[in-house]
Amino acid sequence: MIDELEFGKILAVLEDMYPRYTLEPRVVKAYYAVLGDLDVDLLKAATLQIGSENRPFFPAAGELRQCAFDLVERQSGVPTAWDAWAEVCKRIGDHGYVRVPEFSHPLIQRTVDAVGGWLTLCMSENSIADRARFAQAYETLAQRERTQFRMLPAVREALELAGGEQRRAVEALTSECADKLREPRRP
User: Fold this and answer.
1) Would you list the DSSP string of 16-37?
2) Is residue 28 within 8 Å of 7, Cβ to Cβ?
3) 12 Cβ neighbours under 8 A, 6+ residues apart
4) Residues above pLDDT 70, as percent of the chain
5) pLDDT of 19-47, one tens digit each?
6) Cα–Cα nearest to 155, from 46, 37, 28
7) Chain mean position to CA 132
8) How many CB atoms are located within 10 Å of the residue 46 CB?
9) Angle at 37 between CA 165 and CA 81, to 5 degrees
10) pTM across the whole model
11) Which CATH number fits domain 4-76: 1.10.10, 2.60.40, 1.20.1330, 1.10.8?
12) Residue ranges of the domains in the chain?
């Protein structure tokens, strides 16, 4: 977490990049509420990235936050849905249904489980439909993980406090969606 003084300096650099924009103290406080939980080096990198882009207007706090997390994701090595599917296909060829392989990223394993499991994929006769279902499930799970990772700590705390009935309703809905993903599609 960054302190407010250092945060103000980073925003001042951004203000210098957009000379038509003048930061007011209340704006700095509002930006700090949205960006203050970020690592100082990550925020500096996002500031430089935003400043290097051809943007006509001073960025919103959410744009800076999104840029910061996009930079983290780029470095994290999370495979794309298509790279993940290629890895699954390679493992099917290497291992077959005899044993479940280890994958390069846990998201791949969770997606395999979400679409019916390893044996289901190995025994399937419709790899085109499997690929589509896998990609859809992978993107859904990746988006859920991305949303959780990017969530402001204050929002996360509020959700945890709200918990209870609302959490159970969301879990039921999520389970229902996962069940629908597992259902074979009819032409």
Assistant:
1) HHSTT----HHHHHHHHHHHTT
2) yes
3) 23
4) 87
5) 888 888 899 999 999 999 999 999 999 99
6) 37
7) 20
8) 25
9) 70
10) 0.69
11) 1.10.8
12) 4-76, 81-182
